[in-house]
Amino acid sequence: MAELVVEEVTKSFPTRAEPLEVLRGISCQLSSGDSLAVTGPSGCGKSTLLHIIGTLDTPTSGSVALDGADPFALSEPRLADFRNHKIGFVFQDHHLLPQCSVLENVLLPTLADGHAHPESVARARELLDRVGLSGRLDHLPAELSGGERQRTAIARALVNRPVLLLADEPTGNLDRDTAESVARLLLELKDQESAMLVIVTHSLALAEMLERRVELNAGRFETTTV
């Protein structure tokens, strides 16, 4: 049974004339360990779709089910908790807190009750070792390379063991070699964690590394490659 089910999702925004339709009947299903790349021109709705799947935005119509639950039926506090534990986010910009160390940045999603438990600290250290940053635990983001910052962001996204990992142009600010290294790391960790991975990207090289690829154009999925 699919763990992520997106059914006939639409999204429109009001304008002075008529509603602007950004998504028009998007459907897809992913199971544990699956990966999906969404490509398409700028402004086609890729990030909007990712935000809806990640429960950061609500669809105009249609439904999203993750791990057997309808997140949009939850109250705001329960939705925030659901998102924090079920979904990990990696963005084009790493969004690390400049005043916090690498280890502290990775631990941020675990601080819902105000402090990090020993198990969370051990998990963060393990992930940083797996992404090759065990020697950078006390470094600040300004002391890291672009690739190291993005690897820190990947570790942070995985620290709560999410079932779904969402990445918005995760290699967009990196040079070609570093981008390929980060992409391979994402896929490797996705397999190790048995998580689902959805990436939106302009990079065809990145998209071709994933199991499934779809193109989003005029609000619809036009092509699918398995």
Which features would summarize this protein structure in a list?
226 residues, alpha/beta, Rossmann fold, 3-stranded antiparallel sheet, 7 helices, 9 strands, globular
Would you give an account of this structure?
The chain is α/β, with parallel strands linked by helices. It has one domain: Rossmann fold (3-Layer(aba) Sandwich). The protein is 32% helix and 26% strand. It has seven helices and nine strands; from the N terminus they run βββαβαβαααβαβαββ. The protein has helices spanning 46-53, 76-86, 102-107, 118-130, 146-158, 176-193, 204-207; strands at 4-13, 20-30, 35-39, 61-66, 87-91, 164-168, 196-200, 212-217, 220-225. The strands form two sheets. It has a six-stranded mixed beta sheet with strand order 5-6-7-3-8-9. It has a three-stranded antiparallel beta sheet with strand order 2-1-4, covered by helices on one side. A hairpin with a 2-residue loop joins strand 8 (212-217) and strand 9 (220-225). Helix 5 runs parallel beside helix 6 (176-193). The chain starts with a strand and ends with a strand. The model has no long low-confidence stretch (mean pLDDT 92).
